[in-house]
Description:
In the N-terminal section; belongs to the glycosyltransferase 8 family. By secondary structure, the protein is of the alpha/beta class.
Amino acid sequence: MLGICRGRRKFLAASLTVLFVPAVTWIYLFAGSFEDGKPVSLSPLESQPNSPRYTVSSQRDRESLEVRMREVEEENRVLRKQLSLVQSRSPSQHHRGNHSRTYSMEEGTGDSESLRAGIVAGNSSECGQQPAVEKCETIHVAIVCAGYNASRDVVTLVKSVLFHRRNPLHFHLIADSIAKQILATLFQTWMVPAVRIDFYDADELKSEVSWIPNKHYSGIYGLMKLVLTKTLPSSLERVIVLDTDITFATDIAELWAVFHKFKGHQVLGLVENQSDWYLGNLWKNHRPWPALGRGYNTGVILLLLDKLRKMKWEQMWRLTAERELMSMLSTSLADQDIFNAVIKQNPFLVYQLPCFWNVQLSDHTRSEQCYRDVSDLKVIHWNSPKKLRVKNKHVEFFRNLYLTFLEYDGNLLRRELFGCPSEADVNSENLQKQLSELDEDDLCYEFRRERFTVHRTHLYFLHYEYEPASDNTDVTLVAQLSMDRLQMLEAICKHWEGPISLALYLSDAEAQQFLRYAQGSEVLMSRHNVGYHIVYKEGQFYPVNLLRNVAMKHISTPYMFLSDIDFLPMYGLYEYLRKSVTQLDLANTKKALIVPAFETLRYRLSFPKSKAELLSMLDMGTLFTFRYHVWTKGHAPTNFAKWRTATTPYRVEWEADFEPYVVVRKDCPEYDRRFVGFGWNKVAHIMELDAQEYEFTVLPNAYMIHMPHAPSFDITKFRSNKQYRICLKTLKEEFQQDMSRHYGFAALKYLTAENNS
């Protein structure tokens, strides 16, 4: 690298000399004519024919000038010859010429102190630019990811890569079943152009590394980078391997270009470890695995897979690990220990990357020597268990950079790559076709468009762990919410001890606020049977029925209680519903069990602990039947008068605008997505249940109470915007027509009921 720079300097100096020497000669000759104080003209038009002195002097000057010009021409000829020699020499010749005198900042040989000294200067130099990557060349990235937390980390990493990238990307994700479910849904709904995702089953690879004892917090998955040569397709020649706690501050193509610098037997691109771990002096009796000097950090790896396979990498690392484990007994830093032990025996395998490609932010590292300015940063690695709480002089800057991508709107990364055609995607094509069929001049266009909007979805945002009861009576409470209803979560968890599936409609920044809120709540953190599914904001409407469908789709129990977030179920409702499911044979019959709904206008309520106490509060005016003051039709068919004295379940018939809260089997129909915001979203679903001949049965000893809150933005729009109400009426009519086409003659009653209501 240094040789190339010197060659360029010679080329530049020679070029300047060719231009500079003649100019200086002319100036020199011109200036010499002023010795006697009289200017000399070089133009014959200004000659003085009557002056003998002038004629003699002019002749002498011309002869002198001709001689000097011949000398200059000869010097120029020599310089041109030298210049042509400089141009014909290849960069590799310069590199070899300099290699014996000094070490390039990226060469990976020589002592690490002199290597590090050249990094900062080389990083800002034009001579340090990476070779160009083809415009539409696909860059391959491999990531090992397992579990809920790592899946969140991967999203931030991917955002930072997508933000800077200019090339198509192919992510190879070695994932367990949890991470695969989360990330497959996320990327499918993200729909980023020129990005391909392939998954490899991490659980199938466990047997390859399970024989290696590992003390690192990453567990068995922290060893899986060792088997990438076997795991990834044999046709894949090279790949960048990244840890999940990486943040990019530059285009990943710059790192991909470094592959062109590998020579000889170099097959691993690594950055030197920036802590003293492998020096063995961190504490008394500290005995790390063998390593070359400080060793290398494996948070960022460039792998030449084809050459590694030819070298029998699999056999190489296994033999090394077996030998070292005889004395070391276990690894402390997972795969990194084994990589370093192999490198210790085979240093020629490594191409040492400049340390700005892996600035390691664990405690007591030398990372500050990797950069002098913000522009020097390439990759930040949060490789301490403390993560953002790590000690570093510039940690605030690094933390802010990380938080920028953490809260960055992922929808903005759906941009096309100019000049790089994306692979045909059936889902994208169908979506574009559906949107093109809509009339943009339609006053209800935005309502209709929302039905086809694909919202980015992150399932199981927090840790989820629940095994349904073995008696097949388990029930999951299903609800949806936005940021303004977050305060209801703790109360619901106190009232309902069973599993819960929640869809949260949030922006990227709000999702992080929710995460901090949940992690700071003892109530929420003590519950592992609550599935939080983030549906990211897009468009102007609240997609209430999409949210319900997302929450319904991801339950693990045979039954679900379709509720709303601003209702508190009675204490003990979970166990009561499980008994009712058995008593009413819900497994073999099409029933929808109705939980009667009430409301209070008081923000502070002494919640009734029994039906008798609730009836007393109802008589005193502390409680009311739900929407008694504004929309009695919604729950009137429940027949509250009968419920007051009922001791056994009773059946009720469907009526227009009926929208009770029900318990159903998990295979019940989804909510209709055309209804967004406020109005008819539950009514349409209950109508479809009736069309499918569900029997509505009211539970005599169950109840739920709606808690007061400020009006939602959508109900405000419904009340104030005439066009909103017109479009809702249009959508209702279209839904009823669709019902008639789908269910035939039996669905005519819905049109009749609507006309009579």
